[in-house]
Amino acid sequence: MLEALKQQHQQPAVRDRVIVFDKDKRTAEILTVEAQNEERVMAGEKSIPLSDLELFLSKQGRVFVVNAPTDYIQATENLARVEKNTIIRQIAQYKKPHEERSGGLNWQTILLIGGLILVAIIAAAK
C-alpha cells in the first residue's frame, strides 16, 4: 500500500499540453491546457481553435501542436482576452430571473381570462 502511494507521487499526473511553434521568431512555447470545448483549447493566455491544432499522444497525455506565424499567435492571445472579458462582463451583469409571485395575477393571465369571457359572451348571444 505504501509502495503504491510512493509510485503515485513519483509519476506525474496526466495533463494535456499545447506546444506553440512561432514560425517567425523560431520559438516554441509549451503550455498546460486549462480548458477545452468542442471549438477551442485555452492554454496559458491563448485561445486556439481546435481546427488549427494537430493532436499527438504521449505517455503523459495528449499534446496539441500549432505551428503558426507571430500574427496568428498574437490573435490567439487577443481572443483569450476577449473571451475572459466577456465572461467577466456576463457575471457582472447577471440578474436573477424574476420570481413568480404566488397568488398574484399578471397581465397575461388577466388578458387570457378576459378573452375567454368574451368568447363565452359571444357564444351565449348566438
* Total number of helices: 3
Percent of residues in beta strands? 25-35%
Count of extended strands = 6
Spans of at least 5 consecutive residues with low confidence? 4-12
Précis, in short:
With 126 residues, the chain is of the alpha+beta class.
Give an overview in words:
This protein is of the alpha+beta class and 126 residues long. It has one domain (2-92). Helix content is 40%, strand content 29%. The chain contains 3 helices and 6 strands. It has helices at residues 2-10, 70-92, 107-125, and strands spanning 17-22, 27-36, 40-43, 46-49, 54-58, 61-68. A 6-stranded mixed beta sheet has the order 4-3-2-1-6-5. β2 (27-36) and β3 (40-43) form a beta hairpin. The chain is rod-shaped, with a radius of gyration of 28 Å. The chain starts with a helix and ends with a helix.
How are the SSEs ordered, and which strands pair?
Layout: H1 2-10, E1 17-22, E2 27-36, E3 40-43, E4 46-49, E5 54-58, E6 61-68, H2 70-92, H3 107-125
Parallel strand pairs: 1-6
Antiparallel strand pairs: 1-2, 2-3, 3-4, 5-6
